[in-house]
TrEMBL record, chain A:
<keyword id="KW-0560">Oxidoreductase</keyword>
<dbReference type="InterPro" id="IPR057326">
    <property type="entry name" value="KR_dom"/>
</dbReference>
<protein>
    <submittedName>
        <fullName>3-oxoacyl-[acyl-carrier protein] reductase</fullName>
        <ecNumber>1.1.1.100</ecNumber>
    </submittedName>
</protein>
<dbReference type="GO" id="GO:0004316">
    <property type="term" value="F:3-oxoacyl-[acyl-carrier-protein] reductase (NADPH) activity"/>
</dbReference>
<comment type="similarity">
    <text>Belongs to the short-chain dehydrogenases/reductases (SDR) family.</text>
</comment>
<dbReference type="Pfam" id="PF13561">
    <property type="entry name" value="adh_short_C2"/>
</dbReference>
<dbReference type="InterPro" id="IPR002347">
    <property type="entry name" value="SDR_fam"/>
</dbReference>
<feature type="domain" description="Ketoreductase">
    <location>
        <begin position="213"/>
        <end position="391"/>
    </location>
</feature>
<dbReference type="InterPro" id="IPR036291">
    <property type="entry name" value="NAD(P)-bd_dom_sf"/>
</dbReference>
TrEMBL record, chain B:
<dbReference type="Pfam" id="PF00108">
    <property type="entry name" value="Thiolase_N"/>
</dbReference>
<feature type="active site" description="Acyl-thioester intermediate">
    <location>
        <position position="95"/>
    </location>
</feature>
<dbReference type="GO" id="GO:0005829">
    <property type="term" value="C:cytosol"/>
</dbReference>
<dbReference type="InterPro" id="IPR020617">
    <property type="entry name" value="Thiolase_C"/>
</dbReference>
<dbReference type="InterPro" id="IPR016039">
    <property type="entry name" value="Thiolase-like"/>
</dbReference>
<dbReference type="InterPro" id="IPR020616">
    <property type="entry name" value="Thiolase_N"/>
</dbReference>
<dbReference type="Pfam" id="PF02803">
    <property type="entry name" value="Thiolase_C"/>
</dbReference>
<keyword id="KW-0808">Transferase</keyword>
<dbReference type="InterPro" id="IPR050521">
    <property type="entry name" value="3-ketoacyl-CoA_Thiolase"/>
</dbReference>
Amino acid sequence: MTDRYTKLANGPLKALVKTLGLPSPVPLRRHSDGAYLSEPVLVLGAGAAADAYAQILLDNGFEVRRKPTSEKLSAVLAFFDEAQEPTDLSEIALEIGGALRGLVRCSRVIVFSRDAHISPERPADTDPALNATRNGAVGLMRSLAHEMRGGSTANGIVVSDGVPMDAPSVVSALWFLLSSKSAYVSGQPLHVTTAHGEAATAEALAGAHLDGRLAVVTGAARGIGAAIAATLARDGATVVGVDVPQAGDALARTMNGIGGTALQLDITAEDAGRVIAQRVGEPIDILVHNAGITRDRMLANMEASRWDSVIAVNIASQLRMNTQLTEAGAWGSAPRIISLASTSGIAGNRGQTNYAASKAGVIGMVAASADRFAAQGGTINAVAPGFIETEMTAKMPTLTREVARRVASLQQGGLPVDVAEAIAFLAAQSSGGISGTTLRVCGQNLVGA
Amino acid sequence: MTQSPQPTRPAAILGGNRIPFARAHKQYARASNQDMLTSALDGLVARFGLAGERLGEVAGGAVLKHSRDLNLTREAVLGSALSPETPAFDLGQACATGLEATVSIAQKIRLGQIDVGIGSGVDSASDAPIAVSEELRGVLLELNRAKTMSQRLRAVSRLRPSDLAPALPDNGEARTGLSMGEHQAITTAEWGISREDQDALALASHQRMAAAWERGFFDDLVTPYLGVSRDTNLRADSTMESLGALKPAFGRGLSATPTMTAGNSTPLTDGASSVLLSSQEWAADHGIEPLAYLVDAEAAAVDFVTGSEGLLMAPAYAVPRLLARNGLTFADFDVFEIHEAFASTVLTHMAAWESEEFCREKLGLDAPLGPIDRDKLNPNGSSLAAGHPFAATGGRIIASVAKHLKETGQRRALVSICAAGGQGLTAIVEA
């Protein structure tokens, strides 16, 4: 699981790596290293939103610059929300460019824009120039993310028309993207579609913001599931970890380590949702559908059992559990459902037709479930991990693993905690305006870009 | 003697956890009693979210115990996820150790001494203690006391080569030298228990336990350990033919035809179990719905040394006393959990309770206790299927029967465990 290359490239081979122009990944700052950097934040843009965010940052203890500067910077916030024509992008774009060399390691560029309509279903009165401008801002952000160096990232916050630019979840998304919790998120637009959610300060979101919330995490015994459970517990949630009885000993260790409760249950059981509702016995505030399996085969060689088991665990069980928990009235007042998708579900992957079908299915499920959960004040989202360093990836052939690590913009694999941080962010009370979306945690991997 | 006027309160059984039982010298061959008990406790802690909690007390014990394990249960607590401020004590009553530990915790709860506790037990027949011979021990102790070289030489000179042979534990009775199986073979012959009846009981045990595993009954009673996730002694595919083909293992020196085989006797087994008990208030505070209540218990012992009664017949004496004290008859029970040390133990107990003569002569009753409906006997299998890690059997039975009552909506269960030394411990569990 150790990324030996990253260690060497930052140690004895540093000079050689630079001379040869080899990939030079840097160790990413994570929450355990501190939530936010101390250098000033440059806020670019002349509109009301830019002004508002300069003030919000000041109110939250950040140093703010409103004009390009020669100082070292921890982040650049660029506001394109008022841009009308593609030519309106240039001024701020070039100012971002001018600021890049002043960015410290593991810094952030965050691009704010309004939502463009790019699916065939769009409002009839969509203005082509406006739509081009809005989508252009996202294109800029995605390409900039590829150009970032030194563990820095670029991401976007895309706000739907009618939602105030300073809605709680826009601010919540800012704190997440600005913080070390988003270490392995890059090149991603985060869509805020409603003004729901409770406003939170930068400090609150870095602390025990899930205090008093009950979270159920499936597949919690080890790997990414264990990291999710630990991160939710760190943020104050009471965790019930679910895993198959065969993984009960690992589940017990993980739960005892975080003061959680172990529930040995096969989630593919017909009544799994009802059993969870009954065993938990109190309102479920957060449900993380993490349990998943792979049964890789080329489709030409695929056996029915391999196909069916992947569908059963990775998507069918989630649909059934959601329905049963709703029928049982098991949800808390503003439930947060977060489901594990995968970049394979976005881009496809050779040998993973079954897995990709299930994970693309998850993306479809959350998109279609958002309205239902909105009716009870809740949200449902997916997180799509890219290459994450786990026991599973440690067993990959060395060359395949090395390639998978380096083809990401951050030039390294992510850690289970990176996926967990994204989930904890989506689970936050302040993230109520984000629903039906899929957030990639992939270090901007080329796969599925 | 003064009477305590203190009222008692119910002791709730909240749940249990055990590791799968494994045949001796197999998967758990290198696991110590402390390892296994710690794992059983940790699984229970995780199941009820008790990490870091200080409980009232944990009781436990082992039958085959190393001398270094004088504080076995406390050491297991210290190694577990429980608060290190949780006290613990060891006790022993041979095969009834686990039940006695659970009863002790229940009684402390009933008396208001503690609000919550764990009854537990563990045994490894694989990692058995091996001692030095009495002679060598005497020499070593004297050597330790010796102050001069001549005293040391004198001590060592007493040593004979034969003294160096290690003393291995066996399941022979200290006072008769007979193994438990040989003792039971005598009782089996006296009561004329047939081979077919014994095999049928063994078969039912395997079939019922296999069915319970299949339907997920043990999903919240067992946590895997060392790669084992089901009891390894369990043979779902047992048949009367396969059991009937086994050669007799005990009673071959008796005049009667031997009937006891490896199939209708429990094998040596490794395992650990634990049961969480509390007051109703503690359970409510923690949002846990009790499975059942441990109501009362009664121990008995018989004089097997002179041969006036069979070694494992004590439960036959304990049960009528327990029933009388609680004003109950067999008709008041929905479930009978009788530990299957040997199939014939269960069958002799039942035969005794049906026998007018035994009930009159030995128990002093006007009428026999009567028959037990086989459908109500060990509904989820017992030790013949699960195996029998001595001190862990009590916890297995209490947790299983409590869950069974909850699941079926049945009201009352009788639990009975026979033990070495001519002892037996019985208890009543009520929904």
